[in-house]
């Protein structure tokens, strides 16, 4: 696998954080993957991540302040091998706009980590700081499971 796109609603909270957590974990594991993030809406197009997301990521030593929100495009469905949605609503929106020639595998992010016991990454936008910390915890587990999966596939 070479590329993953992370999707949420606004592309200012969950998905830019997902990109940063996965980039960090993949790099530490010595795995090279192209990653990006986008939203199903353009409400925040061109904006940096939510200050609470920037703060929560900074507690982890990650700087997401230079990310800029964008809306998912039809081309994304062929440019990325996997597209991971944060919640069922994002997944339904993605499936609705999936072109006939889409090659990407589209799924919920937490399908990577069924042991976590939650299949959606809850939207932290209307909540407090705790919601952002929980998002990071979930993303970390999902990234660890992906690395396990890639390691298992590369072993002879
Ligand atoms: P995200 O969070 O989808 O994780 O980026 C949200 C950001 C903005 C809004 C909703 C969710 N909004 O309604 O503006």
List keywords for this structure.
4-stranded parallel beta sheet, alpha/beta, single chain, binds 4-nitrophenyl phosphate, 5 helices, 156 residues
Question: What does this 3D model show about the protein?
Answer:
The protein has helices spanning 14-28, 51-59, 76-79, 88-96, 129-154, and strands at residues 3-8, 34-39, 82-85, 105-108. It has a single domain, classed as 3-Layer(aba) Sandwich (Rossmann fold). It is an alpha/beta fold and 156 residues long. Helices cover 40% and strands 13% of the residues. The structure holds 4-nitrophenyl phosphate (4NP).
End-to-end C-alpha gap: 16 Å
Biggest sheet character: 4 strands, parallel
Into which percentage range does the β-strand content fall? 5-15%
Relevant CATH superfamily: Response regulator
Order of helices and strands: EHEHHEHEH
Helix amount, in percent?
A: 40-55%
Distinct ligand kinds: 4-nitrophenyl phosphate
What is the class in the CATH system?
A: Alpha Beta
For the biggest β-sheet, the strand order reads: 2-1-3-4
């Amino acid at each position: 696998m070479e590329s993953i796109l992370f999707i949420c609603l606004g592309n200012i909270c969950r998905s830019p954080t997902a990109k940063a957590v996965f980039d960090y974990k993949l790099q530490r594991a010595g795995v090279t993957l192209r990653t990006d993030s986008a939203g199903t809406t353009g409400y925040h197009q061109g904006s940096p991540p939510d200050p609470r997301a920037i703060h929560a990521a900074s507690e982890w030593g990650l700087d997401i302040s230079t990310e800029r929100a964008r809306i998912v495009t039809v081309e994304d469905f062929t440019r990325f091998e996997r597209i991971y949605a944060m919640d069922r609503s994002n997944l339904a929106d993605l499936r609705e706009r999936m072109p006939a020639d889409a090659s990407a595998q589209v799924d919920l992010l937490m399908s990577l980590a069924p042991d976590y016991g939650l299949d959606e990454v809850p939207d932290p936008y209307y909540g407090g700081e705790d919601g952002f910390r929980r998002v990071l915890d979930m993303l970390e587990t999902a990234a660890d499971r992906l690395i396990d999966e890639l390691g298992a596939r590369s072993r002879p």
